[in-house]
Amino acid sequence: MGAEVAEVRTVLDGDGGLGRIVLNRPRALNSLTHGMITTIRAALDEWIADGRVRAVVLTGAGERGLCAGADLRAMHDEVRAGGAGTRAFFRDEYRLNALIARYPKPFVALMDGITMGGGIGLSAHSAVRIVTERSTIAMPETRIGLVPDVGGSRLLAHAPGELGTHLGLTSASMGPGDALLCGFADHFVPSERVSELLDALARSSDPAATVAAHAEPAPPAELAGQRDWIDACYAADTVEEIVERLLNSGVPEAKESAELVLGNSPTAVKVTLAALRRARALTTLEAVLDQEYRISCAALDGRDLIEGIRAQVIDKDRSPQWSPRTLSDVTEADVARFLAPREGDELGLA
C-alpha cells in the first residue's frame, strides 16, 4: 500500500482467520490521514460479514510506535484553508472510534511505542488493549490548542480519582503501568514477545485468552504514588483554582504540573476541564463523541489550533502565542461556545 493509507490485509491460517490492520507511515510515526481512516472503516465493515475473519489485530509499522495521532502538518494547512476537510476528518474518525468500540468480533490493539491522540481512538476502545515497556500513551491536545477527543475525554473522565484531569490539562504522558492504572490498556506484553503473540493470535480461537497467556506483570504505575496531591489539587472547580492549589501544595511535581498547565492553551485547558466533568455524566461513548465533535469543530473557528501546531510541529519554537493569552482572559461564555450545539456540527451517534 502507499505511504498515505493504512495497509489492510486478511491473514488466513488453516481454518482460522485474522484481519490485520497495519498503520503504514513509519517515517511519520504512522500519523493518520483521512485516507487511512476511510480505508480502515471499509475493511472493518467488510470483515463483519466475512466468516473467514475471526478477529482483528491493529499494529503500527516500524519500531517507534502505533500512531502519534492525526497528521498535524496536513491539518494545519487544511485549517488555514477553511477547515471543511478537517471537519470531515473528525466526523469519519469519531464514527470509526465508535465502530471499534462496539465491533462484533474480537478487536486486539497493540499499543507498542508512541500511541497518542488519534492512535488512542483506534486502540483504547478496542476489546483487548496491549502495552509494552516501550509504550508512551498520551492525550496531548491542550498543547496544540485542541481538547482531548476520539473518545479520550471519556477515558480520562473515568480514570481513578482526578488522574484523568491531571493528564488532560497537562498533556502529560503515561508509561505502561500508568496506562493500565488509568484504564487505557488491559495487558502488558514485553516487546520481545510481540512477534510470538501475533503468530499465536493467527491460530487462536480465543484472542483474549491468548493475549492473557502472553501477558506479564507491568512495571509500576508512577501516578499511583501521586494520587494524594493530584486528587486534592485537581478536584477544584476552576482551572485557576487548580493551578493555585498545585503551586501552593509544596510538592515539586505539583509545581511542575502547574507550569505545564499554564504553558498550554488557556482556552483549551478550560474547555477540557468542562468537557471532562460533563463526560463523567454521559452514559455512552457515543454521547461523548458527539460532545467532542462539537468542541473540535468550534476549535476550528479559533486561532489557537493553528498557532499550537505551528509552535509544536511546523516551526518547533515551542513558543505559542495563545489568544486569549491567559486563563483569566478566557470567559465562561468562551467555554460555553465550545459546548453548545451548533447546526451542522452534530455526529448524531448518541
Automatic annotation (TrEMBL):
Molecular function GO terms recorded: 3-hydroxyisobutyryl-CoA hydrolase activity
**InterPro entries per the record?**
ClpP/crotonase-like_dom_sf, ECH_dom, HIBYL-CoA-H
Question: Which SUPFAM superfamilies does the UniProt record give?
Answer: ClpP/crotonase (SSF52096)
> Which part of the chain is the Enoyl-CoA hydratase/isomerase domain?
19-339
**Keyword Hydrolase appears in the UniProt entry:** yes
**Domain of life (superkingdom):** Bacteria
| Keyword annotations from UniProtKB, A to Z | Hydrolase
Q: Which GO terms describe its cellular component?
A: cytosol
What Enzyme Commission number(s) apply to this enzyme?
3.1.2.4
In the UniProt record, does the keyword Hydrolase occur?
A: yes
> What reaction is this protein's catalytic activity?
3-hydroxy-2-methylpropanoyl-CoA + H2O = 3-hydroxy-2-methylpropanoate + CoA + H(+)
Q: Name one GO biological process term.
A: L-valine catabolic process
Q: Can you name this protein? A: 3-hydroxyisobutyryl-CoA hydrolase
